[in-house]
Amino acid sequence: MLTETIEKALNEQIKIEASSSQVYLSMASWAEIQGFEGVSSFMYAHSDEERMHMLKLVKFVNERGGHARVSTLEAPPAKFGSFKEMFQTLFDHEVMVSSKINDLVDITLKEKDYATHNFLQWYVAEQIEEEALARTILDKINLIGDDKGGLYLFDNDVKLLVTNEEPV
Ligand code: FEO
After folding, report:
1. Based on CB atoms within 10 Å of each CB, which residue in 108, 126, 161, 166 is the most buried?
2. Res. 119: pLDDT tops 90
3. Overall pTM surpassing 0.85 (yes/no)
């Protein structure tokens, strides 16, 4: 059984994962209308992953006797400046999510909820991967800058990341 504090904290995380999915969906759409197929595929896949992160939490909360809530979300931006700025936003977003997961883990220890603590370890590991992936992409785009030919190659590179990503 979840305590009220844990249920509330997990519901907040459900909202964060849902809004992450929305942000990446908007990035996918923005990349797609500019013809960057690789970047948009990557963002569509990433948006799906965030939805999966959200669903996993929804199921867990309900299985443990709580009530998972679906919240209103703020619309994400429709445009992201340059791809460099967009991937910086993605990286910063993932760092923020990691810190929220850490806070959650901290709460489970304070509440002595070891089942939820154990469940959250999957998210801890996932955030390490997500941050590393975002950092790799950011390093690539920082090398390229705003060079058109470079961006074309970058788009192809990112497309490969989608096909190589392990199913979760
Ligand atoms: Fe679900 Fe990218 O954090």
Report:
1. 108
2. yes
3. yes
